[in-house]
Amino acid sequence: MGTDSIVVGGTYDLRIAAKDARGEGIGRINDMVVFIRNTKPRLGKTYKVRITNTHKNFAYAEPIDNSKPFIGNGTLII
Question: Which CATH number is 2-63 given?
Fold first, then answer.
């Protein structure tokens, strides 16, 4: 699908399918791989994110749900 399926600044619900070497979340929106920067999310959980940058095959996002802030060990404060 490419970058036309998601837009910079758009908000999406993203399920975390994996983590990178730094522990940041990786998920998919349609056929695009999305990396969530500066977070330590939990695997299998769904988070609301805002797309910050897109490329041909992947995109970067940041979390936008401030009511459940991320903390360093990968959990949420509820």
Answer: 2.40.50.140
- 16, β-bridge pairs: 27
Higher-confidence residue: 71 or 13?
Answer: 13
Quote the CA–CA distance of 66 and 59 in Å, as a whole number.
21
Question: Which of 37, 13, 15, 39 is closest to 27 using CA atoms?
Answer: 15
> Among all chains, which residue has been given the structure tokens 């999310």?
41
The answer to whether 49 and 61 have CB atoms below 8 angstroms apart is: yes
Give residue 69's pLDDT band: very low, low, confident or very high (50, 70, 90): low
| Partner residues linked to 19 by β-bridges | 25
Write out pLDDT tens, residues 1-60: 444 578 999 999 999 999 888 878 999 998 899 999 877 778 888 889 999 999 988 999
Q: Domain limits of the chain?
A: 2-63
